[in-house]
Amino acid sequence: MADSSGTRWPLHTKIFLGLVIGSVCGVGANLVLGDDPNLAWFVSHVTEPAGRIFLRLIFMVVIPLVFSSLTLGVAELGDIRRLGRIGAKTFGYTLIVTTISVVIGLTLVNLFRPGESIDPAIKQRLLDSVKAGSSTAAPTPGEVNFGIQTLVNIVPDNPLSSAVNAFKGEMLGVMFFSLLVGVALALSDPERTKTLKGVLEGVYDVVMRIIGMAMRLAPYGVAALLFSLTSRFGFTILQQLAAFVLITLTGLAIHQFVVYSLLVKYLGGLSPLTFFRQIKEVMLTAFSTSSSNATLPTAMRVTETNLGIPRQITGFVLTLGSTANQNGTALYEGVTVLFIAQLFGIHLSLNAQIVVVLMSILSGVGTAGVPGGSIPLIVILLETVGIPGAGIGIILGVDRLLDMCRTVLNVTGDITAAVYVARSETARTKDEG
Ligand code: ASP
């Protein structure tokens, strides 16, 4: 999702402006015109379709994106075999710490319920308004019957049919198939599979380019979506959005300053204060670029020079981490799905929430380390638990701000992993010596 729109203002500033203009005009129209049929006509014939076209441009590449990014992600993880112990430690660390981050996020949304305090009738209207444009019949909202048949269904008998029905609850089948192809690719003779890998890399690049093009329309799309929402639902919806931003930032701050401090202290043997002081430059780079990939060179340099971590470890752990270990992203994805569910008045059963946790962790691996990389993955998560994917339109305007913050966590998490792996390796060498 390229950020250079070639004009004076960066894209994210324009998207934010889209949010402000759309909301101000929408709230104004709501106050002045209220239930005027002309306003309703304008929304249903102009702003709503415009917003929907923008969202569909992203939806249409979700399947090739999931397939290529997960397959390649896992195939690259294949290096783990070669790196043996370091690989296993990094992988274990990623799984555990990502789970902690998602659980923090979900606990906060369940406790504070940022999307809940609106009238149930408004919730229903809100849901109806996004459902109206959806071309698919989603599974029963909020219900994921996590029984034996669900487990069987995760393994698709026909991956193409799962892809066709991905927005009707069969996305997990597509993900499973992609993971399996990735594993097989990692185990195959690289000479014979290099063309296939090249094709997948090509698909991935093309898809990212399409999303980049769609994102150029985001300022207008976001303005249209926000106008449609606020002209119908007034100021209330903006208050909910503010609560969502606050909860997400709180979750991110807890993970950044409490969880990482504990990890650095107990697993890495470093003073958290020194750690954060040393990596300040990395955090600032992540914050300003919103991209783990773009921060990678700075992260490597700082981790090696300021923290004294050996190059063999930073090279592997940070590179892998910049795509696979995304704690901030996983937390954000979980919080967003639950928030949108609350806003629509959809109760997510415990099973559905477990699915959200699992998929957020998996999405942490599948999300590209670029600005807005998690947006397509959130659509998948929403659809899987029976929430219309178009619900994402509500939070798109504030995504960039939260992206800057979650990327700081993504990168800090990678460095924490490197600190842990380096320390445990040194301890081991000493023991052996
Ligand atoms: N911007 C994030 C990163 O690069 C990915 C995302 O959550 O959108 O780490």
Using the coordinates shown, work out and report the CATH topology.
Answer: Proton glutamate symport protein
CATH architecture: Orthogonal Bundle
Number of domains: 1
- Structural class of the secondary elements? mainly alpha
Distance between the termini: 49 Å
**Main sheet: strands, sense, barrel:** none
What does the overall shape look like?
globular
Tell me the number of strands.
0
Q: What compounds are bound to the protein?
A: aspartic acid
| Whole-number mean pLDDT | 85
- How do the helices and strands follow one another from N- to C-terminus? HHHHHHHHHHHHHHHHHHH
Low-confidence stretches: 1-5
Strand residues, percent = under 5%
Q: Please, how many helices?
A: 19
Q: What is the CATH class name?
A: Mainly Alpha
Portion in helices: over 70%
What is the radius of gyration computed over CA atoms, rounded to a whole number of angstroms?
A: 22 Å
Helices, strands, pairings?
Elements: H1 11-33, H2 37-59, H3 62-77, H4 79-112, H5 120-131, H6 148-154, H7 159-164, H8 171-187, H9 190-216, H10 218-233, H11 236-266, H12 272-278, H13 280-289, H14 292-305, H15 311-324, H16 327-343, H17 350-366, H18 375-384, H19 396-432
Bound molecules: aspartic acid (ASP).
Fold and architecture overview:
The protein has helices at 11-33, 37-59, 62-77, 79-112, 120-131, 148-154, 159-164, 171-187, 190-216, 218-233, 236-266, 272-278, 280-289, 292-305, 311-324, 327-343, 350-366, 375-384, 396-432. The protein is an all-alpha fold and 433 residues long. It has one domain: Proton glutamate symport protein (Orthogonal Bundle). The longest helix has 37 residues, at 396-432. Bound molecules: aspartic acid. Aspartic acid binds at residues 290-292, 326, 329, 367, 369-374, 403, 406-407, 410. Aspartic acid is lined by residues 290-292, 326, 329, 367, 369-374, 403, 406-407, 410.
